[in-house]
Every structure is written in C-alpha cells, then in structure tokens.
Amino acid sequence: MTSTFLADKRSGPGADAPPPDIVRARGRARRRALNWLTAMGFQLPALVLFTGLVLLPMLFALYAAFFRWGGFGMPEDYVGVDNFTDLFDNPVFLGDLWRCLVLVVLTLALQLPFALAMAVLLNQRLRGRAVYRMLFFAPYVLSEAITGVLFSMVFAPDDGLADHLLGSIGLDSVGGEWFADQSYVMATLFIVMTWKYFGFHMMLLLAGLQSVPRELTEAALIDGANAWQRFRSVTLPLLAPTIRISVFLAVIGSIQLFDLVWVITQGGPDHHSETMAVTMFQYGFKRYQVGYASAISVVMFGICLVFALAYQRFVLRRDLEGATTTMRGAGK
Question: What is the pTM of this model?
C-alpha cells in the first residue's frame, strides 16, 4: 500500500515541475533578456542615427581619400596615397599645422589661465556675481556666425570700435588692418576666440571650484596658510581633474576651428589665417577636389584620435580609474 501511495504521489499534479532553484534561474534569465531587449530598444534609434550620419560618412571619407574625385557619382580614379603625399608637400597645409600648434599653445598659455582667474574671482562672495557670470558666459551662447560678423565690425579698419578706442587713448598707430595684415591676423583671431570661448571654460572651472570642500580650505586657513598657499596646496590639486578636461576640450576645439575663421577672414590674407578645416572646405566645396579634401579630413581625424588616446592614456588615466573604482564600490 505504501508503494502505491508513493507512486500515486509522484504521478499527481506538479509531479513534473522543476525544482525551485531552476525556476528562479529561469526567471532571472527571462528578466535579463527583457532588460537587454529594453536597453536595445532605447539605444537602437541612436545607433541607427550614429551609423548613418557619423560612422558611414567617416568610412566613405576614408575611402574617397584614395581617389581623385570631384564629388559627383562614385569615386573611380584611384590614386593610392597620392592625396596624402601631395598634402604634406602643400605649404598651405603645412602652414595650417603650424597655425594649429600656435593656437593650441596660446589657448593653453593664455586663454585657460584667464578663465581660471575669472572662475576664482567669481567664486568669491561678490555683489552681483550672478550677473557677472551670465555676462562672461553669454558670448559662448552666441553662434560663431554672429560673433564673426560682430568682430568684423569691431575690428573694421578706421571706422571700427577698436580703432576708436585706441585713438581715444593716444594709440592711433596700433590700430589698422586687423584682419588684413598678415602679421596681426592670427593674434586678432585669438582675441576673438578668447572672447567667445573663455566663458565656457570659466563656468566649467567654476563648477569644479564649487565642488571643493570648504572644510579643507578652512582647515588650511586655521593652520596659517595664506590665500596663495591655500589655492596652490588645496584648491588646485582638487581642481586638477576639471582642468584636465578643460585642456582636452580646448585642444580639440583648436584643431577643429572653422566657423569663426570662415566668417571673418575665410583664411586670408594669403592663407595666413587658414586652418585645416578651412583648407578642407576650400578644396571640397570651392574647388570640388573632394578626394583631396577627404584626405585632409582623415588627417584631422587622425590627429584628434591620436591626441585623445594619448591624453586618456597618460593624463586622464587616474581620473578614469578613480571613477571606475567609485562606480564599482557603489554597485557592491
């Protein structure tokens, strides 16, 4: 009778049901699959747009760089690496590389320290500091086209505001052909760049300053440190990650500079304000040498890529490792 009862129990309802641990494992697998499908559903539109508008054009530009192509139809006249060899024999492009280096050095040596100084100043308890922050950040909100037209009028020869201001303080000889003189055009463009972009870096550094714990500076003050010592030993080391990000964005922006130069000078006079992006535009959309312009774009991309990878490897490594460690610790 006992064996009959056990047999009936094994053959009853739920006799073939899997163990509870298998049921839980299957439930977790279903939830993971559902989460993965949900994530892919959100990411798919962005992936499609990125592939169609960024990745495929980049690959096609790399392909076109090996052809002599005018931009119509499909590239057929294969020239190998001739576009690249011609590029580095072109004195205009070599000048573009030199001017890019000059802009990067001036940005790091003048624009970013100026932005840092203004950020430190506006981090103090000043009356109306919110208004000052808005005024200094406002140029960054303006489009490059509006900024270019505005400073074309400010630095207009004889009738421009800059010449009038210099004349009012007895410096008439300093003004003149700001954008037409080969000796002054890059310096004048850098002044415009600084006015346009320093507000962005100032706000970025100001956000970093506001994240510095006040207790540390107060402790340094109690220990007898003066203002410079507190800034050098407490504030600046804690602000270093923000400074490194600001430097990265400034360098990449200088390499890719186009809008301001094109609106104000179009690369003149005699190519003395031309950048790589302006040269690429000239050859691609003015001379219809799209294969040659594609080679310029590939070189620009290569410079940005090498700089970004090297900067991440040697400069941002500690910041990225700290962020990864923090995220792992938060997930435990």
Answer: 0.83
